[in-house]
Structures are given as structure tokens and as C-alpha cells.
Design brief:
The complex is a heterodimer of chains A (230) and B (313). Helix content of chain A is 33%, strand content 26%. Chain A has seven helices and ten strands. In chain A, a hairpin with a 2-residue loop joins strand 4 and strand 5 (64-65). Chain B is an alpha+beta fold. Chain B is built from eleven helices and four strands; from the N terminus they run H-H-E-H-E-H-H-E-H-E-H-H-H-H-H. In chain B, helix 1 (2-17) crosses helix 9, helix 2 (19-55) packs antiparallel against helix 10 (265-297) and helix 7 (159-201) runs antiparallel to helix 9. Chain B is elongated, with a radius of gyration of 32 Å. The chains are: A alpha/beta (230), B alpha+beta (313). The A-B interface holds A 8, 10, 12, 49-58, 67-72, 74-81, 83, 89, 91, 102-103, 105-111, 150, 154 and B 1-3, 6, 204-205, 207-216, 218-219, 298-308, 311, 313.
Chain lengths: 230, 313
């Protein structure tokens, strides 16, 4: 589903964020990108979203080389990727329903499609009764559920999550992880950058560890840290 | 349909959020187009009034009396015949002493002092009234007439006044056009600024729109609509104000017979549409200018090839 070949990203000023990274993420997989701050996790996510261009190397998403994608086609790439961030990125002046519907409105979907789809996804994230509330009236965990709902309402084949539990307490984080797990089980490929040890250890999924922009470990059913590190 | 409604709603939200800046942009369009349209209306007034002149007599040749000072007895009719034969002349007719007195009475009938002052009606000179094919030819005609000094007492020409009015109006036009260009440019720049501010105010929304895969045009259209509306409203205000001013001027000047201050509605309709289109174009141009930096950033980085060439590692 996602393949990176010798991807290097050098920012202006010479900072190397990602160095010669090669990764192959098959369809339906759940992958954790782990590592300390500045190890290149977020940059990888941004590269897969084409929020940044690569300096060298090629990234394939669904068989297409997205590094060669003309600018006008980038929105089509993003429609096939749901994104969840640490800071939720909700619009404060829109209700829960409006925030989720926004993702479909900008794609020009008719209201007859938007209404049932939003209802369905809010039901999935457990916020069916809070559709009329504004983000400020929700807890952090609930806000993140809205953001997951918005990412998933379009049923994208890929979800990219950058520290989705970074602002949440452990109990709330578990709820979000269960949600992402459910979404993954519908066949959606999930890539999640995190430095939450407990979650990675509990989920027992593939772990890709980064350090200074290099992949230093890629385990099929891994933990946050190797036994040796512990 | 829902897509159009969505885009329109977004544009209206933009307008409502930045009322002050939007008002500034609308006023800039209003002032620049209002001045340009006003200059055009003044020009139209000058044209209408010179047309009235042009339809009338252009040159009056005051003649010395026949049978005196060596003027032959049939000289007046001979000159009339000659003048009527000239290519530049559309029409020429003779005003004899009786007709001249009638005209005198018509003009000064209300003024007994003037009538008393004219001791002898026969003292009024006869004249030939000439209409020209083209007003610019008056100098040629004047020159030809001057070849017969013994017959001619004086040549008066309205063409000179018309030329002076034309000169004044062309200066006014020049000033009007110059001002309009400067103000028009400032209107475009102001609209560009309001659009840039609107994008800044909505940067979170724009980034989320990009994140969920809204096309760049979908993101841009509300801002283009915003500029379009600002340009159109400013232009409509300008056209309306000049129209109202024109009406008032015509109303105030109703009693005056010498000049015609009535601008036909057809003029306002024709040029009003042109100015509305111009305002709309200025609005869209301003939006595109305001969006230009955003357009460059919106693609999320250039394709790898382009970047590789630019940034050697």
C-alpha cells in the first residue's frame, strides 16, 4: 500500500530529517513509527501526505509515485488518506457534526450522502449523542474521536496518525487505540507515529524505530524498546 | 448545487469576518470607479452641448451695406452664392435688415434701454449664417472670407468656443483617466490585501481543507468570490452615485436654456454595465494577486525532480 525507496529529506539549512529510509507497508497493516522527538517520525508522515517534497528517493502510495505527482493531483492523494494529529485540528466555530461533514463538503458530496455518512461514523466513534456540541464543550479524548471520525468519514484506505494520543491521559488513549484498531480491522492501513511506550507494547503490532532519521529496527510484532535497551 | 451553496456561504463568511477591511476595499473601488465614471459623464455633457452647437450656426459673416464704400449693389447675394458653393459649407443663408431687427427684438425685447439705444433699425448689419460640414474646417472658411475685406465687416465664429471647450474637456479627461488609473490600482491592491488577510484569518480552516483533500480551486473560489463581490459592490455604488448626481444636476439646471445638463439614461445603462464588468475584473484580479503566494505554497512542495535540481545535497 505504501512503499518508500531510499527516501532522504534535507530541510533548508542542511538538517537531515530522514536518511535513506526504505519501508514497505502492505495493505491492511498497522505500523507504529517510534523514536524520540526529532528522529524523523513526523517528517515521514508529512512526506507520505506530500505536505513536504522528498529531497531524494521515491514514495509509492497505492502503486503511484507521489513524489512525481503534479501539484493539482495532490488533493486526490489526500482524499485517500485520513489524518489524525496530536492537536486534533478541529474548527472551533463548527459543531461536531459540522466538523465531520466539512471533510465531505469540501469534496462536493451532496447533503443526501453527507448526513447518513456522518451519522454512521459518529456512531462508530461513540459520539452519536454529541453531534450538536462544539469542540470546546468536549473532553480531549472526545475531541480526538471527532478528529478520527473526520479522518475516517470518507472511508480512506490509509490512516496516518501523528501522535494521536500525545495530549491524552492513558485511559483515554486506550479508547482511541481501540478505535484505530477497529478501523484497521475494516482493512484500512494505519501508520501511527508515537512515543507512547504502553500503547505500542500493548498492541503488539509492527514497530519501525527511527533514530536521527535512520530506520534502526523493523519488527513484525514488536515492543517500543528492544529487550537489550530495557 | 450543494457545492455552489457551500462556496458562496464560505465567501459570505469571509466578508462578514473582515467588515472593516472589506469596507475599505469596496470604498477604494467606489472612489476610483466613481471618479472615472464622473469624468466620463462630464465628457458626455460636453459632447451633448457641443453637438447642440454643431447643429447650429458656426460662422456668422457681418456684411458692410451694399452701395456704400465701394460695395457693389449685388455683392451680398453674390457672396452667398459663392459660399453656398464651397465644399466645407453644409448650409448658408442670408439675414437681411428686417430679419436682423426681428432677431434683435427677440434677444433684447425685455430690455427697453437696449431698444432705445438702437436709434435706427437700419443700422443693424445684414449677415450670412454658415453651417459647416466639419467644425474643424472653420479656419479654412474664415481664411477664404477674409479675401474680401471691403465687403466684410466682421467674422464671428462659434467654432473657437467649441475648440476651447474641447480643450478643457480633454484636460479634464486626462486628469480623470490619470486619477482613475492610480485609484484603480490602489483598489486592486487593497482587494489583494483583504484577500490575504482573509486567508490569514482562516488559515486553520484552509489547512484542514487541504488536509482532507479539497482541491486548490475549491479553496480559492470563496476568496475569488469575495474579491468579485467587493469589486461589484464598489462599482455598483459608483455607477449609482454618478447617476444620482447626474439626475440632481439636470434637475437643478432645468431653467437654464443655454446648456443641456440632461444625460440620457441609455448612457448610464451602457457605461454602467461596462463599469460593473470593470469592477468585477478588478476584484478578481485583486483576489488572484492576494492568492498568488498561497497558490505557490498550496501544492505541498514541488515534485521531487524540481527539488532535486534546486537543492543539491
Amino acid at each position: 500500500m505504501i512503499r518508500l525507496e531510499d527516501v532522504t529529506k534535507v530541510y533548508e539549512g542542511g538538517t537531515v530529517a530522514v536518511r535513506d529510509v526504505s519501508l514497505d507497508i502492505p495493505k491492511g497493516e498497522f505500523v507504529f513509527l517510534v523514536g524520540p522527538s526529532g528522529s524523523g517520525k513526523s517528517t515521514l508522515i508529512r512526506l507520505m501526505l506530500r505536505e513536504e517534497g522528498v529531497t531524494r528517493g521515491v514514495i509509492y502510495v497505492a502503486g503511484k509515485d507521489i513524489t512525481a505527482l503534479p501539484a493539482w493531483k495532490v488533493p486526490f492523494l489526500r482524499r485517500s488518506i485520513g489524518t489524525v494529529f496530536q492537536d486534533f485540528k478541529l474548527l472551533p466555530n463548527k459543531t461536531v457534526v459540522e466538523n465531520v461533514a466539512f471533510a465531505l463538503e469540501v469534496l462536493g458530496r451532496p447533503r443526501s450522502v453527507i448526513t447518513p455518512q456522518v451519522e454512521q461514523v459518529l456512531d462508530l466513534v461513540g459520539l452519536a449523542d454529541k453531534g450538536g456540541r462544539y469542540p470546546r464543550q468536549l473532553s480531549g479524548g472526545e475531541q480526538q474521536r471527532v478528529s478520527v471520525a473526520r479522518a475516517f468519514v470518507n472511508r480512506p484506505p490509509i490512516m496516518l496518525c501523528d501522535e494521536p494520543t500525545g495530549n491524552l491521559d492513558p485511559a483515554t488513549s486506550v479508547g482511541i487505540m481501540k478505535l484505530l484498531d477497529r478501523i484497521n480491522r475494516t482493512g484500512t492501513t494505519v501508520v501511527m507515529a508515537t512515543h507512547d511506550h504502553a500503547i505500542v507494547d500493548a498492541m503488539q503490532r509492527r514497530v519501525v524505530q527511527l533514530s536521527n532519521g535512520n530506520v534502526i529496527r523493523d519488527e513484525v510484532s514488536g515492543r517500543y524498546e528492544t529487550m537489550a535497551e530495557q | 448545487m450543494s457545492r455552489v451553496a457551500f462556496l458562496l456561504r464560505e465567501a459570505l463568511v469571509n466578508l462578514r469576518r473582515n467588515v472593516l477591511v472589506v469596507t475599505g476595499a469596496v470604498l477604494a473601488v467606489f472612489i476610483s470607479l466613481g471618479l472615472a465614471f464622473g469624468a466620463l459623464a462630464v465628457n458626455e455633457l460636453v459632447r451633448i452641448n457641443t453637438v447642440a452647437w454643431q447643429e447650429g450656426v458656426h460662422v456668422i459673416v457681418w456684411l458692410n451695406d451694399e452701395g456704400r464704400d465701394g460695395v457693389p449693389t449685388d455683392a451680398h447675394q453674390a457672396l452667398l452664392g459663392e459660399v453656398q458653393g464651397w465644399d466645407e459649407v453644409a448650409n448658408a443663408y442670408y439675414v437681411d435688415k428686417t430679419a436682423a431687427y426681428d432677431e434683435f427684438l427677440e434677444i433684447f425685447g425685455d430690455d427697453p434701454d437696449m431698444i432705445d439705444a438702437l436709434e435706427n433699425p437700419a443700422a443693424l448689419p445684414t449677415s450670412i449664417r454658415i453651417e459647416l460640414n466639419d467644425i474643424d474646417l472653420y479656419q479654412t472658411v474664415e481664411f477664404r472670407l477674409q479675401q474680401q475685406p471691403q465687403l466684410i465687416q466682421k467674422i464671428s465664429s462659434a467654432a473657437q468656443e467649441i475648440e476651447q471647450i474641447s480643450a478643457v474637456s480633454s484636460v479634464l479627461n486626462f486628469l480623470g483617466i490619470g486619477l482613475s488609473i492610480v485609484l484603480g490600482a490602489s483598489a486592486v491592491i487593497l482587494i489583494a490585501n483583504t484577500i490575504r488577510l482573509a486567508i490569514y484569518a482562516r488559515r486553520d480552516e484552509v489547512s484542514i481543507m487541504k488536509l482532507v483533500g479539497a482541491s486548490n480551486w475549491f479553496i480559492r473560489v470563496p476568496f475569488l468570490l469575495e474579491g468579485l463581490i467587493e469589486g461589484l459592490v464598489g462599482a455598483a455604488l459608483a455607477v449609482f452615485s454618478v447617476w444620482v448626481a447626474g439626475r440632481n444636476l439636470a434637475g437643478a439646471a432645468e431653467g437654464i436654456r443655454l446648456v443641456n445638463l440632461q444625460i440620457p439614461n441609455a448612457f448610464f445603462l451602457r457605461w454602467g454595465i461596462v463599469f460593473l464588468l470593470f469592477g468585477a475584473a478588478a476584484g478578481v484580479l485583486g483576489s488572484l494577486l492576494g492568492l498568488s503566494r498561497y497558490l505557490r505554497e498550496a501544492d505541498g512542495g514541488r515534485p521531487a525532480g524540481a527539488r532535486r535540481a534546486l537543492e543539491p545535497v
